[in-house]
Structures are given as structure tokens and as C-alpha cells.
Amino acid sequence: MRSNNVVIRVKNLTVERSNAEIIKDVNLEVNKGDYVGIVGPNGGGKTTLLLSMLGLLPLKSGSISIFGKDIRSFSEWDRIAYVSQDAIKFDAQFPLSVRELVSLGRVNGHNFGRSLKTVDWEAVDEALEFMDLKKIAGKRIGHLSGGQKQRLFVAKALVRKPEVIFLDEPIAGVDPMTQEKFYMKLSDLNSKKGITVLIVSHDLSAVFCRMSRIICVNKEVHSEAVSEDFIPDELLKKTYGEHFHFVFHKHECAGVFNNGRTDSS
Asked: How far apart are the first and last CA of the chain?
């Protein structure tokens, strides 16, 4: 029996890019309300998997369904939001305020070229409030810090009222404290708004501390639920290699990974 809670189902998926097989024979499910960390080595296929689930890459074989519909005929993309890894790389001189940029998330094929309605601006203000950006709503986007830019583009995605949000390495290049605050905001999206979150990340500590499922990608893909009893060693070795060792301090919600040695700190 198929669960009504499954929002994404991937079956026997193989994807090629530039005539090279990037991911092979992938099978996984993402349930409604999951908070999913997609991890793996550089070049292993994390972004390829994510783009495939967004319908942005052709499939060599296999299938993907979203909300029970084959991705090739799926049309309800307003239920899905995506923040790319290049989202914050914009022209710092572009003359838009934070509130104006977030409002662009409400523009679609039905209202393009028209003024936004009151309900649209209410959604904008709600997203700004939730992402702690309301106090800087009038600030030019080129004057924002790295962490503010990240939250800005999540707010722009949120105004669409999505049920699922994909994020591809949105926090590269910022300090650990800013990263932690960002992950906390994603946790709030997941727990308080019920949004299913999938994020490509290199931060294994954040994945095991905050997320409910891990998807490990290195051509082959392995997916497991994360729980207090979950021991990640074997799963991570399948992805990163036998040399890889990860120590997870459950009580401190922290992890340290090392090549070939154990960290007992």
C-alpha cells in the first residue's frame, strides 16, 4: 500500500550529464514533513539529484513522482520552491529593497505586469517577519550581510506558500554562527509551518542534529531516517569511502569527521 504522506518518490533513477552517468539506480522516498539533508563528496551528484527532482534534468531511466503524479506531467509547481546555490550572487548595485525583492516571489503567469494585491503584500510581510527581515525591509539588497541575503531568498520562496522547498548549498562562505541561525530558521519552517525541506549541505553535524532524514549521494544513493539510535558509520563509509570516520556527540548535538582517525574530544 502506498502512503498518502509520500510527496516525492524516486524509482530506479539514472541520470546522465555530458554523456557521463552521474547517479545510478536511485530509489528513495520523501514524506510530508521530512527535513532532509542531502550530503556527499564534491562531484558525487547531489545537485544532479536535486535538479532531477525539480524536473530540470532529463532522466536516462527510471521515474520520479511528486504528490503522486509523474514528474513529466506534473504541473503544480507553485507547491514547490527552490533556492539555488547562486541565488545570493546578484548585482549589489541593483536598486531593489528587501521588501521589493521578496514581493517578486508573488509574481506568476496570472498576475505578471499587474500590481500586487493586498493579499500578496500580506504574504510578503509575513515571510519577512518569519525570516527576521522585517526591520530591514526598506534596506537596499546590495547592503545586506551574507546571512541576511540567505534569509532574503528563502523569504522570496516562502511568499508562494510552498509545501516543499529545495535548497542547494545556500550557506557556503558564511561564519558558523550565521550557519547555525540559518539552520534554526529552516527547522522552524519545517516544524512550525509544516514545510517539507530538502537541503544540499556539507555540514554533517547540522544534518544529524536537526534533520529527520539523510540522503547520501556518490553516484549511488542511500537514504535513511535519522533517529537517536541511528549509527551513521556504515552509511557514510558507503558514500565517502572506508577511510571516513564520523563521531557524533548526541548529547552536545555536535559531530566531528576525520580521515582515518577517531576524535574523542
From this structure: 46
